[in-house]
Amino acid sequence: MSKATVYTYDLEVFKNCFMCAIKKYGGDMRVVTVYPGKQDRLEDLIDLFSRSDAWFIGYNSMHFDDQLMNLLIDRKEALLSQPRVSLLESLYRTAQELVNGGQTKYKYESAFNRIDLMQVGGLQKSLKMVAINLGWPWIQDFPYDHTYEVQPQDLQDLRDYNKNDTLITERLFEELRDEINLRSFISSKYKVPVYSRRDSGIANMLLRKLYKNRTGIPPYLFTRQKTEREEPIPIKDIVHPDLSFETSRMQKQLDEIKSGSVHPDGKFEYTVHLNNLAYTMAQGGLHSENRPSLYRSDETVQYVDADVGSYYPFTMFLHGIKPAHLQQGFLDLLEELTLMRLDYKKQGKKREADALKIVINSIYGKTGDENSWLYDPKAMYGVTINGQLFLLDLIERLEIHGFEVVYANTDGVTAKVPTGRRDEYEAICEEWCEDTGYILDYENFEVMAIADVNNLIVLKESGSVKRKGRLNKKRHLGTWGLGRSFDKPIVPMAIEKYFLEDIPPAQTISEHEDVLDFCMAHKPGKKFDVIYEHVENGQLRREEVQRSNRYFICETGKGGSLIKKTPSKELVFTGTSGHNVYRVNSKPTPEMRELVNERYYIEKAHQEIAPIDNKQLSLL
User: Fold this and answer.
1) Model-level pTM greater than 0.90?
2) What is the reported pLDDT for 143?
């Protein structure tokens, strides 16, 4: 695909108007409009989509735009021979069938090369809310109802809206370029069409093919299988027989765990106490119960993270854990793929490693998915419970020898290693690897600012920064971030500057110029209308506005309130109670930045910093 011509596009369809804005990547935009009494270039547009050397990129296009264009290609001669009024009626009728789910003929088969970015990004929100995450200047909801009869004077506004959506799609294409290239690589190497597939869909298709090739069993046979269990599963039947602990306290806790059972449809949770930390064992993995803490390496101590590579896949094939209805070939395949991925990583073959990562990382989750052919609750619990117990075994070994563990989460353990004892620390870890068969990778951490196990900032010795949760200034970007809400990134920016560069939050916030980083965003459900209540010329005004809104907390006496409204109740937008907000749905201006209530953002940063670094509370 790297040498192909790429176009982003967007369609708008009304009873009396069809419009397509299409842009060649890195080139010009054009808008094809079919409207009574106007010349159009619809035939040229259809011919363009028929080119085999071009790719067409849309957003949520599998469900609408792509199907409509496939209809135009498939019925080109018949449709173009109609009067334009009849053509528009046919397109509108089909569009309504698509919207209402009554037309799926072209959903999975296409006459042109296409990619749906909503699928690639695994996104479940509107293009406008994605645009906010991308820092796009113009945020505009659809200006008309689709039942509206478009008037000649409306055409320019509609073109501007259509072009804006196409430009947002192009920007999103750039953001997801690595994911798209990976899908292109997988499609070519493994001969499976995954261009518009979410990661879970890629894993399904690729695993089916690889398992068929390994076992010779046709997919229509093994994909109908799964192991359902109705009775509670004794945990003693799950725990590996060689698992034991050195200390009597840990062994007693293990015996307590083994005396219980788990229900196939229930949840597993158990708290283990080991020296200074409590650890929660749960279906999603082990995690330490951390209080807000700040750790810094210095000349006397180094904080070292030991991470288990491909932990759950290793747990499966090392201990023979598999869905009961599948053959040994499944575990052989899993081991081959896992070791191959690690080898690709060592060789620096990122695409090859990432392709296999999608497959092997999906397998554990699918053992707990009753809609998957890998479903077997006993296998799922066997992986997660044994994996967590083996990690607790490593933690116990380190604690026994005086290495304090300060953090653990799913597949990694961070310990405090005194200067001069690094070799001893690694010897304990490597002995654990020899005993269990797992592989550990080590990283030195210079600074760890932990609010809790899921919200932290870590500065690595390499200079890179690991961020999680609400302390992640980039949580709204990237494949995993675009689906999240946009929520004042200036706050985690200021927190990170404080912990890693010793810069007070007030300085970071007062010197920051981009008003979008002070913004939040919200789009209420369709049952709500949105009201912007504000004072203008001494009079209170209540103005109905679009549902997608980007806004910041502004100084008292400026801006107004955003209210979501139904016939029976009114609610101010979450997080804005007691504050005025200023809407930023168009290109920001320097004047907007002057309205920001900096005290609000400084206080939000202090609220996060103070529990972590309470010694500095007076300085804040």
Assistant:
1) yes
2) 84
